[in-house]
Each structure stands twice: as C-alpha cells, then as structure tokens.
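Model it.
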Amino acid sequence: AAYGEGAKQAAPPLLPNPFYPTGPMADTCIQVAAGRDDVCLIPKTPISAYESMQLDKQVQKLNSASGSVIVDSTKNMLELVKKSDFTGIQSEVGNVEAALAQLPKSTAGNTKER
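Modeled.
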C-alpha cells in the first residue's frame, strides 16, 4: 500500500447476510456473513443415525404403496432429505402440486339437505 493508505482488508464477519448462501457453501451452511461468502455463521446440522433410520422405514412403507406420482415424489423427497438437497425437494413439491391439481374435485362437502 502507498504511504498513508491502509492495506485492503475484508470487513469483519459480524452481520448476517439476509439471503441464503449459494454455491458450495450452501451445502454446509444456512447463513453466511454479509459481504463474506467464506464465513459461515449458522452451519447445517446433519441428520442423526436415528433420523436416517426413521426415514428408511418410511421409504419402505411407501414402497408397498401404489406407484402413483404423489407416492413416488414422496419417496424421492425422503431420499433428498437424507442428502440435505433442498432444491431437489422444492422441485419434487412442484411435482406433487401438479399431480394434486389434476385430481378430480371432491364432492363430499357439496351435499344438499333434503
């Protein structure tokens, strides 16, 4: 640095960034510092062995169910939860919503009294 100028330094990682992290940091971090994508303020916690076992049991139960789009998407979402792939879960939720939109409307609540 020239005389009278300080060296270039990054800002201290004190303030949280209001946006979710992107790139490789998004795999291990929930919140990064503002202006510092290299500092993780809130790390993601991996699922425990017990939680993984519970998810496996639910997938096994769903394997015996019918092969509808909703059941298949639910199985995929459970597998994605184990991997902490939340963007994949979001796309599977879109698949479920599209499948639900195609179902016929229920007439259970539309009965008339005579």
